[in-house]
Amino acid sequence: xxxxxxxxxxxxxxxxxxxxxxxxxxxxxxxxxxxxxxxxxxxxxxxxxxxxxxxxxxxxxxxxxxxxxxxxxxxxxxxxxxxxxxxxxxxxxxxxxxxxxxxxxxxxx
Length: 109
Description:
Blueprint: E1 2-3, E2 9-10, E3 13-14, E4 26-29, E5 34-38, E6 43-47, E7 52-54, H1 57-64, H2 72-82, H3 88-100, E8 104-107
Antiparallel strand pairs: 1-2, 3-8, 4-8, 5-6, 6-7
């Protein structure tokens, strides 16, 4: 069990990048993060309590599949079906950076 910032405990959820991202992890956006379309920028954005992050196309495609049901391996496979080549390590690095910022949480597969 991992302690959350409020002092409560949460089972099978990791929010630290130290752990790494495995193919069986099921990523999902953290509760305080929302992905939406910004009409002004004509792009997908992540809304955090004090931050707006403008996503590029591939970042938005990855996060679109981060629903807590898809594993990282399934996300890579799905993106591979859409595009010619999807490097597994780049998807994991992207997710690791978001886990480190606590924008994405990982449920154990």
